[in-house]
Structures are given as structure tokens and as C-alpha cells.
Design goal:
The structure is a single chain. This protein is α/β, with parallel strands linked by helices. It has a domain at 11-101 and 174-258: P-loop containing nucleotide triphosphate hydrolases (Rossmann fold). Helix content is 30%, strand content 23%. The strands form two sheets. It has a six-stranded mixed beta sheet with strand order 6-7-8-3-9-10, sandwiched between helices. The protein has a four-stranded antiparallel beta sheet with strand order 2-1-4-5, with helices on one face. A hairpin with a 2-residue loop joins strand 4 and strand 5 (76-77). Helix 5 (158-170) packs parallel to helix 6 (188-203). 41% of the residues are buried.
């Protein structure tokens, strides 16, 4: 199969998981999972409920620590023992609920927990001007269009809200952005906006891991698709080298599918 667009032959992967397993009591949530994600590459993670996708994302985002296996960032072993550690390693996760404050405007949401302090001696605990300047830069970089930076995000469309959540992830300039069901409950036009956002993240040479139940979106945006079933990675496909029926068969275990 051809290499993914972001892969440079001989270079270390942006993210690599080797033989990662996770147990909760006597229940095996992940079993010897291998996963790589390269710079400027979009990888989709798919599987039915209970396949292990959520646990795998929690391992990568530092919420859970694997019982066995290795995690490497840029070829170096790391211990992602907290979300803070994952963020310091350049990993930011945008969860399905977006965690936006509807009563706050776009700027305040973008910098929530990362506010820029002004000169306190001037009585300005926050540097609104600096935050607006950075907000415009990040929003324009992903072509996210909103009427006004002072508009409360509760009044924005679903696609715009997803854009704000993704842009908030970029404030810390991460290497890898994890998107949990980014197009769920969106209309056709809003879904197209979000898929365009994912494409622009790729153009910025960031790695993107997308968790999605929407197989049409996956086929449209992903350079590679990793299929999980019962806690194990059961198949991997490269863009253009698989059919929808092969993808569904791998997810359901209808028949054996060879690895990509």
C-alpha cells in the first residue's frame, strides 16, 4: 500500500503505540494494540460500542495508563500519566461535548484556562487585546468564520462551535489533535465545515486522530483507518484501498480481513 501523505521514510512516527494493553479488574479493555500516526496525517479510529476506542483515546490523552506496552512521541518513550503530561507532550483532545461555556464569547472560550494576563498595575488582570489578536490568527488559520469575537458561543451554529473547540486546542500549538465524534449531530453543511477543518489541520502538518461512527466521513477525510473490535486492532486500511463493505466486515467480524 502507498505511504500516507504525512509519512517521511525513515523518520520516527509522531505517535507510536506498541503492544498496549489495559485491564479494568478482570476485564480486558485493550489487547496488544499497535498504532502509528505520522506528521500531517489523519488517522480514523472506528469500531462498534465496546470496541476499545474510548479506552485507547484515554491512554493517548493521559487519562488512563496502560498496564503493558509502550507509548512513543517522536521516537522517544513517554509516560502519559495525566492529561497535563499529554498536553506537555503536544497532545490535545477535543471531546464530543466540546466543553464550551455558552455564556462566554469566542475569545474567552478559546483561552479558557489559558488566559493571557495583562499588567495588573494597570488594573487589567487579562490582556483582552492580546487574546483577540491570537484568536483572530488561530481562527483565520482554520478559516473559522464567526460574526463577532464578542458573540456568546451559545448563539453559534454546531459547525462554528466545533470550530471554536478545535481552535482552542490550537492555542497551545499541539503536535497531535484528537477529535472525538467531531461531526456527530451536525447537518450536512456543518459536517462539511468540520471535515474542511480537519483537512486544514493536516495542511498545518499536525497529526489528527479522529474517532467517528460516520463511515462516510471517515472515508472522505482519513489517510488511514484503524478498526477496533473487542479491545483489539483487527484491521487497518489506507485511503483508496478498501470498500465500505470491507470496513463494515472488519468492524463486525463478518469475516477475516487482512491488515493493511
Amino acid at each position: 500500500m502507498p505511504e500516507s501523505p504525512g509519512h517521511v521514510s525513515g523518520s520516527a512516527a509522531l505517535l507510536e503505540l506498541r503492544q498496549v494493553s489495559k485491564y479494568f479488574g478482570g476485564v480486558r479493555a485493550l489487547h496488544d494494540v499497535d498504532l502509528t500516526l505520522n506528521v500531517g496525517e489523519v488517522v480514523a479510529l472506528v469500531g462498534d460500542n465496546g470496541a476499545g476506542k474510548t479506552t485507547l483515546v484515554k491512554v493517548i490523552s493521559g487519562v488512563e495508563h496502560p498496564d503493558t506496552g509502550e507509548v512513543l512521541i517522536d521516537g522517544a518513550h513517554v509516560r502519559l500519566d495525566s492529561p497535563r503530561t499529554a498536553a506537555a507532550s503536544g497532545i490535545h483532545t477535543v471531546y464530543q461535548d466540546l466543553s464550551l461555556c455558552d455564556n462566554l464569547d469566542a475569545v474567552r472560550n478559546l483561552f479558557l484556562g489559558q488566559e493571557r494576563a495583562g499588567g495588573r498595575w494597570l488594573g487589567r488582570p487579562l490582556d483582552r487585546h492580546q487574546m483577540e489578536t491570537e484568536a483572530r490568527r488561530v481562527l483565520e488559520g482554520l478559516s473559522v468564520k464567526i460574526r463577532s469575537l464578542s458573540t456568546p458561543v451559545g448563539g453559534l451554529s454546531g459547525g462554528q462551535r466545533q470550530g471554536i473547540a478545535i481552535c482552542r486546542a490550537l492555542i497551545s500549538d499541539p503536535k497531535l489533535v484528537i477529535l472525538d465524534e467531531p461531526t456527530a449531530a451536525l447537518g450536512v453543511s456543518q459536517r462539511a465545515e468540520v471535515l474542511d477543518l480537519i483537512g486544514r489541520l493536516r495542511e498545518q502538518r499536525r497529526g489528527v486522530l479522529v474517532i467517528s461512527h460516520d463511515l462516510k466521513d471517515v472515508q472522505q477525510v482519513a489517510d488511514r483507518v484503524v478498526v477496533m473490535r473487542l479491545g483489539a486492532k483487527v484491521a487497518e486500511f489506507t485511503r483508496g484501498d478498501y470498500t465500505s463493505s470491507e470496513l463494515v466486515a472488519a468492524m463486525t467480524g463478518a469475516h477475516e480481513v487482512s491488515h493493511g
